[in-house]
Amino acid sequence: MRLERIFVFLAAASLMAACVRTPEVEFGVDTDELYVPAEGGVRVVNLSIDGQWVASTSKPWITFSPANGRGSMECKVSIDSTLLFEKRRDTIRIQNVNTLEIREFYVEQDGFEHQITLKNTRVDIEDFAEYDKRYFEVEVMANVEFDAVLSEEARSWLSFSEFKLDLDRGARPRRSVIRFDWKVNSRDYERIADVVFVPKNDAPLGIHEGLKVVQKAALPIPVGTHEGDSLALIAINRALGGFAEWDTSERLEHWDYVKLDENGRVKGVQFFLFKTKEPIPYEVQYLTAAEELIFFSNANHQLNSLDTGEWITKLTQLKRLTISAYGLTSLHPDFVNLKNLEYLNLSSNCFQEIPDMLTPDNFPNLHSLHLNASRRNAVSDLSNDIREDIGGFVDDDLSTEKGMRSFKRLLKWEKLDTIRLSINYLQGELPDMRDEGLECWTFEELKDSLDVGLTELPENMRDLPKVLPNATYFAINGNRLSGKIPDWMLYHPKMDLWIPFSLVFPQDGKDRKGTNAGFDNEPASLEYYYEYYVNKKYNTYSNQE
Fold first, then answer.
1. Domain range for residue 186?
2. Given 198, 215, 232, which residue is the final one in a domain?
3. What's residue 204's pLDDT?
4. Could you tell me the CATH number of the domain that includes residue 46?
5. Element at 244 (helix H, strand E)
6. Close Cβ partners of 241 (under 8 Å, ≥ 6 residues apart)
7. Whole-number Å distance between alpha carbons of 464 and 241
8. What digits encode the pLDDT tens for the residues 117-176?
9. Would the pTM of this model clear 0.85, i.e. be above it?
10. Would strands 122-125 and 211-215 be described as parallel, antiparallel, or unpaired?
11. 123 with 86, same domain?
């Protein structure tokens, strides 16, 4: 009986519970409007509903997930990045499948501002690095075309390569990487450059960032001191990329290839076997006691097109200077300041023409000039080669007024005792120099070299112009010269010293016109010469047939 009562009670309670109605869920979302930045993003909304539902939007830049379902749940709204500068707006609709009721809310997205932004707005660089490492890259995000602008002072040590900004996504900022190259800072103070990025279409920028470049100061070099000279040598060798280094634990007087004067200052130094693509380094100007400098053997020098730079032109006390196999194609305009030069060696460079500044007026003390082997490549037939930049003074064609003028300028240089022009691309015919206003040789000047039995000059020597009257060494072999050998050369009083069958007469290949190089009247021996200069048969250099 008791069990039956309990069972009846439980059944009645269950029946009563079944008759109580479950409260209905109000259909809706927890927001009326979503605000999203131009970059887009994901937002969460809470949906309340009984039964089945489906969501929709008319724009492809909005995604509602899930797109349909049953009952209340947390949903995601994904908004793509915009491609517009203006705002955009759309509606998301959610419909109750059972009742067909609709609830709406809005999505509003900002447009992009016109902008130029940087990943890093400041770059700090060292005062020195190896040549191939003197650069940095800057990442710029922009949605407008722009130019990078440097101040005039900054352009002296900072430059940038061409860059491209591909605006293939409308107003959406795109990435551009700009490479900046910098030069060594040899000054003992910090250098600062401000790079400004300027829009090309004058668009009003909402976000505009610039770049600050700060370069570390160099170690100061005390000028005019033993210590300053040693620091300058180390800095020059470092800037050149020298393969050999001095042992700085040794005293300066024990450094290889360094000569000191009585005061312990550097009087002469040789730099060789290095690798640079720049002019003579800045620190060379601190060698204020140097009388001789040698720069020789730059790696791949035949590929370079370098200027000497201005800094070496500060050393007006220099007497002997060699810049050989460096890759020079020009001399700095201030090179004329080196008026005390007595010896100048510019051999094995890449000159297209003889530098105009090489004149006796600019270098009144110069007596030895070396311009040999100034070509990039060995070209046998110039008429079969289309390259222009081959060096070897190829632009000084003696068949042209310009080329002849340059060559005659050297032949009139009275003080030169040594001139080397071998292994170049000089072409054309040598000038006879009779109409250049030069004095002619006299019997009094030559009598010590003539047969004592002669009382006057032979007829063919009476109007012989005094070309290079002091030259004991003259070399033009290995060029593309042709035509006749002029009398001033055939009968020059010092011609036997020139070793002509080795260093004058031999020519090579063909010139630009296809003419075979070589002289039409090259003598078979010097017997003709000794008929006039009888006493010179016994000269050390005379047996050279």
1. 115-215
2. 215
3. 86
4. 2.60.40.10
5. none
6. 130, 131, 274, 275, 276
7. 51
8. 999 999 999 998 888 899 999 999 999 999 999 988 899 899 999 999 999 989 999 999
9. no
10. parallel
11. no
